[in-house]
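Quick start: read one record
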Amino acid sequence: MLGISLSPVGAAASPIISPRIDTAFGPLLQKLEGGQNAVMFVNGDSTAYSEYGPYYKFAVALGNLYDYTVVMYRWAEWVTSAPTGPKQYSAPVTLRTGTRGTMSVYLAALPGQVAGCMFETSRKPAAIDAIPKPDVAITHHGHNMSTFETPGGDLAIGRGLIWSIIGLISWQWQGVAQVMTTQNPWRDTAGYDKVYDAIRGVASVFPTLTVVDSHKLFVDAGKTANLYRTGEGAPVVHPSDTQANSDGAQKVADALMATFKKTKRALFSTVSWMELPIATNLFVNGDLLNWTGAAPVNFSNVASHTVTKDTDPENIFLGTGAAYSARCKPADANGHFSKLQNSFDATERASMAGKNVTAIMLAKANPLQRTPVTSFVTRANSGLRTYTGGGLMWGALSGAGGWMPIVYGSIPCDPINDDANSSYGFAPAFGGAAAPTADVNWLQRCVIIDGAVPRLGLVRPQA
């Protein structure tokens, strides 16, 4: 089968058509075939955590295939929803001793949390910065991200969550080959299917991501009871991954190995979409450069929100080349309704009409405040729709901080986009009750493009 690969960043825009014998396991394959030491990074939830789970099985299977020593570093943390516990990898465990080389596996599995958690600052440097650049990065998430809204039946928010983690991994390790599993369906309901569809939607337009369809194996097997944990309340989510029964975990490991064995060459890298250039930004003054009053031009403060320029280098994303970010402060009392808002005018609305637009907002979260929430309101799917993002980037974690790209992936705007209520909002303390503090969050860049693949136009600082 033929596939279309995106050109590398900075290269000509024309696609390269090549036989799809390449997968993101290519660089790892090259190391293992050559007897070189290799590194695998796995970002997962509780379904990846067990020592009888899919990544222990997959790693050992690769070790058996190539006669490798396999060393496992598993994330250890006592309390996943509070800033306590040993936020580091536990002591390494040798799963297999071989003669040809060593494969180190960093299993960053965090039960109960979401894909972005390993990239927020309370888990750095141990989670990400302390490990060597991997030969492959595997994302195994979705179960804890299934609560995203679907305005008008659309999956743009879910697709955005997938784009965000791809972007964070690519910014951490430029060009690293990325794999994403579709995890497993829930046994009793179809509640996970929208995540599955969101992952496949991203992969359909981004061939430099390799998707392992483990979900399909469970469906094809009839989601039989032996594939799931016993004693779990409905809906049953976890695949079986105990010493007594690990049939479910084996299904996922089998899917990973099947994709690995399809790999025929080493050349593979995942495009860093955050560095793709922007042809036309439909968001006027998205870089906040035009700022002559109490707020950037086209923006206004709502519900006693205040915004100021922040020139502290710690609060400026280096890849933007900007001299400042927007320091967004909620009201001192009941600031959960405060926000910085851009009400789209008729020209902006017309520029989006009839297009599939992707919106990206680059923000920084403050560990002293709630995770910032953005809202994108436009006519789409035959009605005025509100897309909200940010809250599921790092889940319900308290004390979370750091940079986050908040993405809405491919919103199908209506052909007539004439609703004056269309807007974009950045709420630094949004929630169902008053925020515990009046501390700030930061906004750096807003981009709206015509297209399904996000582009943020960042320039990586030279080492």
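Residues 277-450 form a domain with the Jelly Rolls fold (CATH 2.60.120.260).
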